[in-house]
Amino acid sequence: xxxxxxxxxxxxxxNAGDELDHDDSGDVSCAHCRKIDSSPSYSCNSVSxxxxSVSxxxxxxxxxxxxxxxxxxxxxxxxxxxGAGLKGGLALFxxxxxxxxxxxxxxxxxxxxxxxxEAIVMAFKETLRxxxxxxxxxxxxxxxxxxxxxxxxxxxxxxxxxxxxxxxxGPSMLLTGLNTQHTSLAIYILMRAAVLASRCGIxxxxxxxxxxxxxxxxxxxxxxxxxxxxxxxxxxxxxxSLPPSYKSFLNKHGGKDTAILEGVKEIATGMRxxxxxxxxxxxxxxxxxxxxxxxxKVPCSIVHGNQSCSGHFLSFLIQAYKRALPVYLPVYLIPxxxxxxxGLLKRPYTILxxxxxxxxxxxxxLSVYCSSAWMWTCLLFMIFKRCNIPMVAVGTFPTxxxxxxxxKSRRIEISLYCLARAIESFFTCMTDAGYLPRSKNLKxxxxxxxxxxxxxxxxxxxxxxxxxxxxxxxxxDWVFGVPPPPCxxxxxxxx
Length: 495
Prior knowledge:
It comes from Rhamnella rubrinervis. It holds the Pfam family TMEM135_C_rich. InterPro entries: Tmem135, TMEM135_N. This is Transmembrane protein 135 N-terminal domain-containing protein. A hairpin with a 5-residue loop joins strand 1 and strand 2 (28-30). The protein is built from 19 helices and three strands. The chain is mostly helical. The longest helix is centred in the N-terminal third of the chain and has 38 residues, at 63-100. Strands 1-2-3 form a three-stranded antiparallel β-sheet, with no helix packed on it. The protein is globular, with a radius of gyration of 27 Å. The termini are close together.
């Protein structure tokens, strides 16, 4: 306590605004160090966790216990809102896109394609599951955080409490489905944790030199090129190594029929053609009459029929842009409603304008990315007059250069997202080829990886907040509440 002004130093400087408690005698106590200040001179401010320091009127329970319970409930509710909002928004746009092409789907229902009603029910279930997942994660984290702080002391447990709470909340991923593997999500969160850990290492005196290469200005572009080489090669050669949802995404934006992909795969792997008739039939259905040569060395005529390579790039780019717009509308719209909810009322045109500009820019990135994948491979095939697996891998590497179209702040997000899927695909291919053993004992490695990753992330959130970008801190603070700073008064340290 500071005897000069009768106020605990916990509430001075950067700690100003935290809560003071009253005991039965009317004395004031610090909510963090729980030391009593007999001086009546203090200023009671609102708590930084999203609730007011006023009496809640819930009977004989202490105010601090009800505030902790309220923090748990509020965090759970906000986590549910974010999970359901993100998943529900994506599902909504997916359903709307599906309804637009319902005539085409009507002819495929005989082959087992789900109906629109079934798609809506499935989307509702997925929305509910992801809402429960993030709601439970937030509630579990806050609960464990408060329990450890109450039992071990706020200051004494500050260095490790968030790590334990983050790890304890990780198994909430099982709420998305006990038999549903989320390896891609777990690896992506692991990549995010690694980025935060590397930022901590960069500013550390001990590990600064080791982590200095991670500050390379164009490292995100390199990661994107590396990821593209694996992902797009797998898209053509080994689609079963990709997650089903991501495979569906690539098949949609790759813009090529499965018969065309099978033809490119056969020529790249040196197999005899088995479906040239199906490819010719596909082109004929689209108004293009073509006769494919079974002795061809490069698959350009398979990929774009009678079009030239440059003409195919331009026409594909326009079509890809139309496909990309519905993808990025919810990506920019939903965060604007959550992160910028207050500013949206004050300056709606500015925020919505930035959202539309971001949508147009990101859509251009995705369309250039997809169209350039075919352009680079065609160029390489024509130069070397051959097509094989190394050529496919090399030809898809420069596709990642399309990421330069995106904002610098979004590049690392996209490259890490793709890197997570590339890593999963790579290890799946290595395992199927017999180079890596299959794990029989650990069936839910994704939950273990996710728990470890979120433990690191939540530790950085509580102890190394400067390694986060402000927009992510805003979301985390909104859900979990700003972590109260450890009590730094001399009296608290001595105790």
